Amino acid sequence: MGGQGKVFTLAEVSEHNHHKDCWLVIEGKVYDVTKFMEDHPGGDEVLLSATGKDATDDFEDVGHSSSARAMMDEFYVGEIDTSTIPSRKAYTPPKQPHYNQDKTPEFIIKLLQFIVPLLILGLAVGIRFYTKKTEA
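Above: the chain's sequence. Below: its structure in token form.
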């Protein structure tokens, strides 16, 4: 591998995050990919979006060929101090309110709120109709 094997912090590597100076961290190694920006098949934006972090997952997700992996040797500049890379936090879903699976009481209340006024209205109309018939 080329380079002197210097150890860099993530903060140091993160400073190299533009078209004219682009460094990536892949599998604990630091690569200066500036010269490769124009030739990268995925475009330079893909490389720029992977700066300032551990880009190992991004690199592996694409499925690079063995020739692409061999090409990395010429861009090697050193190692990353792994203690400067933030640890991944386990995903914890947001807390949600308790789900009441038995919604029967709520349903009955809503049903009664609809039916009771209809019954009262029906009763009022029925009484009025009955009293009109008996008066005639």
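The mean pLDDT is 85.
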